[in-house]
């Protein structure tokens, strides 16, 4: 049961950013100005346009890596740092009463989950385990 739960935890943590970026990419590719709109959205939080491809790359690459259990420890640490980045730069400046702080706390909690996963990597049914054998 522990193997299954560690696998489930890894998959659930991976899907947060992986599914989010797949939806974002669908929005970007379905509109001729989708990428520019994404850059403008980030600009509202004071982030220059160079962050758009970096954020897409981090979410897609490390989310997929975590899902497959490849370089789990590295992926979890990167996503923990990324979660803190999102919390500070995209959630704290949110002017909506209450939601900015709530979003901030959710992303900080995610960072805690990623750190816990990194400390207990590799998990069951992962590519990391296949490489050990």
Short recap of the structure:
By secondary structure, the protein is mainly alpha-helical.
Helix content: over 70%
Question: What is the number of helices?
Answer: 6
Radius of gyration over C-alpha positions, nearest whole angstrom: 16 Å
Model regions low in confidence, pLDDT < 50 over at least 5 residues: none
Mass-distribution shape: globular
Helix/strand class:
mainly alpha
Task: Work out the number of β strands.
Answer: 0
Number of domains: 1
Order of helices and strands: HHHHHH
Main sheet makeup? none
CA-to-CA gap between the ends? 22 Å
Beta-strand share of residues: under 5%
Calculate the mean pLDDT score and round it: 92
Architecture overview:
The chain is mainly alpha-helical and 133 residues long. It has one domain (2-126). It is 78% helix and 0% strand. The chain has helices spanning 2-30, 34-43, 51-68, 72-91, 99-119, 127-132. Helix 1 crosses helix 5 (99-119). The radius of gyration is 16 Å and the shape is globular. The protein starts with a helix and ends with a helix. 27% of the residues are buried.
Features:
133 residues; mainly alpha
Topology:
Blueprint: H1 2-30, H2 34-43, H3 51-68, H4 72-91, H5 99-119, H6 127-132
